[in-house]
Amino acid sequence: MSRAERTLWSGAALILLIPAWYLAAAQATFIESPFAVLAALPHFLSDPATWSNIGLTLGRVVAGLSLGVVAGFAAAFVMSRSRFMGDVLGWYVIAALRTPSAIAAILALAIFKGSEVGYILVVAFITFPYMAMGMRDGLNSADNELDEMSRIYHLGLLTQVRHVWAPYVAPYIFASLRNAHALAWKVIVVAEIFGAARAGFGAKFEHAWEYMFMIEVHLWLLVFMAIVLIAEYGLIRTLEKHTFRWRKEA
């Protein structure tokens, strides 16, 4: 199947959601008609407050996810190089991996009293174990003879990362990054709601839900899905295709 055909089928799948949404709205009390929501969309998007709240949440996600990626890389590198440190850090990684997002959000916001640091750290705490586990599996899959080759040719650390380790771990990095990215958006919304944030996506969603502004609830949901899909397909998968551009397309 060509790229154009795949794009066409993907677009058709999205369009099919509209009649399903319409039928659901006809049967449920708290689901607005897609036509009413789409009619309100231009005014919603033209409001500067909408973009300031989106920008605030986006900044929290980017900062927290970046911190989680760096921490995950560091933990994975240490665990793959030392069996002792792998055993020690493995407990922390598993504990973070099994911690419910809502519990982590409540604890972080209670410790940091709802400050910006709390929002960023809860995203980092939830996403870092996914990066650590994926990166560790990638490093462990690398051929040990490549390490020996690196030592024989006295390759520097950056050269080893670029030409020896990166080709092995890149698929694991992108797989982990997709999971971590999706989880980051989910946990930040939970954190903003539980943390009683005054601004941000979760705060405005919770405000609209509390006062039963159902069209606004739907608009925030649409924006949330649009941002996640744009980041997934417009950024992460584009970067992945560029990284693996040498592969033949199936």
TrEMBL record:
It comes from Falsirhodobacter algicola. GO terms for cellular component: plasma membrane. This is ABC transporter permease subunit. Signal peptide: none annotated. It holds the Pfam family BPD_transp_1. It is a multi-pass membrane protein. InterPro entries: MetI-like (IPR000515), MetI-like_sf (IPR035906). Belongs to the binding-protein-dependent transport system permease family. One of its GO terms (biological process) is transmembrane transport. It is found in: Cell membrane. The chain crosses the membrane at residues 50-77, 89-111, 117-133, 183-205, 217-236. PROSITE patterns: ABC_TM1. Keywords: Cell membrane, Membrane, Plasmid, Transmembrane, Transmembrane helix, Transport. Residues 54-240 form the ABC transmembrane type-1 domain. The keyword Acetylation does not apply. The keyword Membrane applies.
